[in-house]
Amino acid sequence: MGDPCDITSDQVWEDQRAAYDAMRSRCPVAHDDGTWMVLRHAEVVAAATDPVTFSSAFTPRRAIPNSLDGAEHAAFRRIVDRYLTPERVAREEAQCRSHAAAIIDSLPRGVTVKTVAQLGVPFAVRSQSSWLGWPAELEDELVAWMADNHAATRSGDRSRTAAVAERFDALIHGLLDARRDADPGTDLTAELMHETVDGRPLTDEEIVSILRNWTAGDLGSLATSIGVVVHFLASHPDEQERLRQLSTPTAGRAAPAGRAAPAGRAAPAGRAAPEGAMALEDAIEEILRIDDPFVSNRRRTTREVNLGGETIPAGARVILNWTAANRDPLVFPDPDAFDPAAHAPDNLVFGIGPHVCPGRALTLMELRVVTEELLRRTTAITLSPERPTVRETPPVGGWARVPVVLR
Ligand code: HEM
User: If you take atom 43 of ligand 1, which residue's CA is the nearest one?
Assistant: First the structure.
């Protein structure tokens, strides 16, 4: 019989969520040689909010801002945050809505549709491309790249992952070259090229790294999140109906004049946020808590530290498992219960601490808009009777396939 706190578990390949639930009930912090996986809510929060002990500089490769610590992280984070404010996100809403409407209208009715491949991926790529000012012709290349990146990551073959990363960097370098003499007002990518840090311009490597993090990881997260949301709607007909009512254009009273959107939320441009839209974003964040597709992030300890009764040595590889923490019964007594209001204060889908996701407002707006359009343009969404749903495999969570029938 193996160590009950061993991270390795065959069940992870069948159903990560269930495997982590079982692991967390045995050990708040599981471990294998040199690697410690933090599973309980309290310990994940403690580690994520102590960046001095749990450093984000876990690899020699510099990722901006993800792998930076301290003052250097704060300087780059100020730049990133400027591009993801609720006001800027609100300006993207109409464009995202037209992408969602066009994709959903092109999907057949009454037959099986692949949610992630036919809705999630094209919506993620189109929305991110128009946000960044990238040409529509790049979409096919980005879709192909996402598939290759996904396959390379799952293979665990580092040379394959490195080759895919290089292909992506070459693609972005081409976009930078095309904007070398462009006015900063041309598009968001040109604007980023005019940023400075500590009084000097950003290097090409730094710009590429920022753009890599906005696209490489996040296109995939957006596409899988759409799979999780649609799976929830299809398997919870009562909630689907309630959210359908909330999604009608007149749903919810307009918020009182002058009321700003809550922190981290985008108010639709030019007017106060309708309460229906806010309620839908709360519902989406709760659906992602129950089945969090963005499983984990890494850290490295800078000193020996005690966490959840375990002594972790200095220099250890630490994995913060958001998916497990978001289902910790010590905080969410019934982890599968859908209760946005009660669970929102402890929801860790977008992380916590200095590295908390700067893309939260953008992501929630995009997921809300695609959900609204899906519910407005259909009368029912059901799981396909012909094809099974298929779970994703590590390191990605959620669903690889969510075949549904739209009516
Ligand atoms: C469903 C979609 C998404 C989820 C679940 C998600 C989740 C997260 C989480 C949990 C973190 C914390 C990482 C850590 O503590 O190490 C994070 C960081 C980050 N996210 Fe997101 N994210 C999503 C989409 C996006 C999007 C669309 C963008 C940008 C356009 C974005 C940009 C970033 C960046 C730059 C960081 C690093 C922040 C830093 O190190 O200071 N994310 N995200």
Answer: 357
Q: Express each pLDDT in 219-238 by its tens digit.
A: 889 999 999 999 999 999 99
Give residue 66 CA to ligand 1 midpoint distance, Å: 9
Q: Which residue ranges have their beta carbon within 6 Å of ligand 1?
A: 48, 56, 65-66, 77, 80, 213-214, 218, 221-222, 225, 294, 297, 322, 349-351, 355, 357-359, 362-363
* Secondary-structure class of domain 10-406 per CATH: mainly alpha
CA distance 350 to 322: 9
Predicted confidence at residue 329, as pLDDT, reads 98
> Could you read off the pLDDT of 309-343 as tens digits, one per residue?
999 999 999 999 999 999 999 999 999 999 999 99
Per-residue pLDDT reduced to its tens digit, 334-387: 999 999 999 999 999 999 999 999 999 999 999 999 999 999 999 999 999 999
User: Which of 59, 126, 132, 218 for a ligand 1 pocket mutation test, highest count of atoms within 8 Å of Cβ?
Assistant: 218
Answer whether 95's CB lies under 8 Å from 130's CB. yes
How many Å separate Cα 50 from the centre of its chain? 22
302 pLDDT higher than 50? yes
Helix (H/G/I), strand (E/B), else coil: 337: coil
**How far apart (Å, rounded) are the C-alpha atoms in residues 88 and 74?**
20
Contacts of 96 (CB under 8 A, 6+ apart): 127, 130, 365, 366, 369, 370
125-to-71, 74, 100, 108 alpha-carbon distances in Å: 33, 28, 11, 21
